[in-house]
TrEMBL record:
Its cofactor is FAD. Residues 2-286 form the FAD/NAD(P)-binding domain. The lineage of its organism: Bacteria, Bacillati, Bacillota, Bacilli, Bacillales. Keywords: Disulfide bond, FAD, Flavoprotein, NAD, Oxidoreductase, Redox-active center. Homodimer. The chain holds residues 207 to 507 of 507 of the full protein. The keyword Protease does not apply. Belongs to the class-II pyridine nucleotide-disulfide oxidoreductase family. This is Alkyl hydroperoxide reductase subunit F. It comes from Geobacillus subterraneus.
Length: 301
């Protein structure tokens, strides 16, 4: 059996695998693709000590770093976890891997709007992460789709950078906490449009506007702008753990400060957990924490 089996090959999983392998213990990593969300990222400017890099380049150097160590890499999808004497992980191809400890780092995905233009203009004006891409829209007009906590937080954040921010909410009311709404409405360069159904993100080589339908009147409107931040939810890739590992209301794996889950010997790290913020550097930190905790568990059992 493995000593440590990591599920997920993004920043969290790769870091966990390296930390585990450096303890000289039998380490494996299962990932359906190596690199995770950073493969879908263009510019990265907040990975400290690297002023600028691009997602695919960072993903390649993460993979190269993992391959420096004796780690069994399996490009596969995990579909079931079961705690017996050892922890068993079943893969989509039917194989069952056994390990003394498991680190779950299957990440998350941004919920897409699913309107024309969204896919086409990803990284060309369509963005999902205000901490990451906000500064690219300095002095420009942007929209935030979604008036929940993350949408309103994003709008407040972006209002300090962009010239103007328009928030589009599908429902008749914003869903964000009252204190965030108060802050939002106090800002001079923010417009809130409720009952707005986004119909299309328009552009040529990059975004130049958004079309929405006023759900009350049925009228169609178009706003000229340069950026659209989609903030309608981050979904953790944890559906396959239903009924085995404890998750919160939105499906994030609940971990303690050591990265331990409710199942003995099972740890978790990165965007699939209930950690406060979802960033590369934060995922890597939690991957290191989970691996050290798994090692600590092994020497006590
Ligand atoms: P992920 O990167 O999501 O990796 C999850 C891994 O698990 C993947 O390898 C996936 O294939 C695998 N996996 C999932 N399910 C299974 C399964 N069942 N079996 C096997 N493998 C599975 N952060 C920043 O710090 N700076 C930025 O500039 C930045 N820009 C971003 C731009 C975009 C467009 C996006 C989407 C995100 C951005 N982020 C940025 C956030 C950052 O990418 C994430 O916080 C980080 O990648 C999370 O790492 P992770 O390892 O937890 O998860």
């Amino acid at each position: 059996p493995f000593d440590v089996l990591v599920i997920g090959g993004g920043p969290a999983g790769a870091t966990a695998a390296i930390y585990a392998a450096r303890k000289g213990i039998h380490t494996g990593i299962v990932a359906d693709r190596f690199g995770g969300q950073i493969l879908d990222t263009l510019g990265i400017e907040n990975f400290i000590s690297v002023k600028y890099t691009e997602g695919p380049k960072l993903a390649a150097s993460i993979e190269e770093h993992v391959k420096q160590y004796d780690v069994d890499i399996m490009i596969q999808r995990a579909k079931r976890l079961e705690k017996k004497d050892l922890i068993e992980v079943e893969l989509e191809n039917g194989a069952v891997l056994k390990s003394k400890t498991v680190i779950l780092s299957t990440g998350a995905r941004w919920r897409n709007l699913g309107v024309p233009g969204e896919e086409e203009f990803k990284n060309k004006g369509v963005a999902y992460c205000p901490h990451c891409d906000g500064p690219l829209f300095e002095g420009k007009h942007v929209a935030v789709i979604g008036g929940g906590n993350s949408g309103v937080e994003a709008a407040i954040d972006l209002a300090g950078i962009a010239k103007h921010v328009t928030v589009l909410e599908f429902a008749p009311e914003l869903k964000a906490d009252a204190v965030l709404q108060d802050r939002l409405y106090s800002l001079p360069n923010v417009t809130v449009i409720k009952n707005a159904q986004t119909k299309e993100i328009t552009g040529t080589d990059k975004v130049n506007g958004i079309t929405y339908i006023d759900r009350e009147t049925g009228e169609e409107h178009h706003i000229e702008l340069q950026g659209v931040f989609v903030q309608i939810g981050l979904v953790p890739n944890t559906e396959w753990l239903e009924g085995t590992v404890e998750r919160n209301r939105i499906g994030e794996i609940i971990v303690d400060k050591r990265g331990a889950t409710n199942v003995e010997g099972v740890f978790a790290a990165g965007d699939c957990t209930d950690s406060a913020y979802k960033q590369i550097i934060i995922s890597m930190g939690s991957g290191a924490t989970a691996a050290l905790s798994a090692f600590d568990y092994l020497i006590r059992h």
